[in-house]
Design goal:
Blueprint lengths: L1 H42 L5 H4 L2 H25 L3 H15 L5 H13 L11 E5 L6 E9 L12 E7 L7 E7 L4 E2 L4 H9 L7
Helix pairs in contact: 1-3, 1-5
Length: 205
């Protein structure tokens, strides 16, 4: 019983750490959304209360807040591509990476963002199927290329490194070195394979 509880607690912690980046992203998004919504609500303060309290007006304010938030995020995305933006990101990274409690969470969030950025797109490419964790069970992975000669126990066989991401956090996973015959290339785009993994197989199209 003690071993079971210990194992269950370990799986709980792993699941919690995997979901933390997602929870933090949602929390930040909602916090900024409500902040913008409050500002826009104050802009329309001159309107009579009977207009402000109608459902149509409430939905209009929420819609405007959402559009403003998306526009601000897009503008910030453009800003971080500039020289000053890169300097700001470098300072932010250095600050959070030196905080013991926030360091692993911030690092995980950054890895998720970088995984979907154009600069890191080549890492999650070439989706394949491999037999894992046992024969007859197939798992989606990403072929990261042929390994050097010192990774090959048998020189006559080509071997490839395959990264198998976990669900729903694709930044963690398993690295396998398999023979060429064990790799089954998939005729699908990378974004579709990632969508399948992130949704736990719920979204298949």
């Amino acid at each position: 019983m003690k071993r079971f509880l210990k194992g269950a607690f370990s799986f709980f912690i792993q699941g919690l750490l995997a979901l933390l980046p997602l929870f933090i992203s949602i929390w930040v998004f909602m916090f900024v959304f409500r902040f913008i919504e409050g500002i826009i609500d104050n802009i329309f303060i001159f309107l009579p209360p009977e207009y402000l309290e109608t459902k149509s007006m409430i939905y209009l304010i929420k819609a405007i807040s959402f559009v403003v938030l998306v526009a601000l995020i897009t503008m910030f995305g453009l800003f971080v591509r500039t020289v000053f933006g890169k300097i700001l990101l470098s300072i932010t990274d250095s600050f959070f990476m030196h905080i013991p409690g926030l360091r692993p969470i911030y690092k995980a969030v950054r890895q998720v963002i970088e995984s979907f950025s154009t600069n890191k797109k080549s890492f999650f490419s070439n989706p394949v199927l491999v037999e894992y964790p046992s024969k007859g069970i197939w798992t989606i992975g990403f072929n990261t290329g042929e390994v050097p000669a010192d990774f090959k126990p048998f020189a006559e066989e080509k071997r490839f490194s395959v990264f198998i991401p976990t669900t729903p956090n694709p930044t963690s996973g398993f690295l396998m070195i398999v023979t060429e015959s064990q790799v089954r290339p998939l005729e699908m785009k990378t974004d579709r394979a990632m969508q399948f993994l992130l949704t736990g197989g719920v979204v298949k199209e």
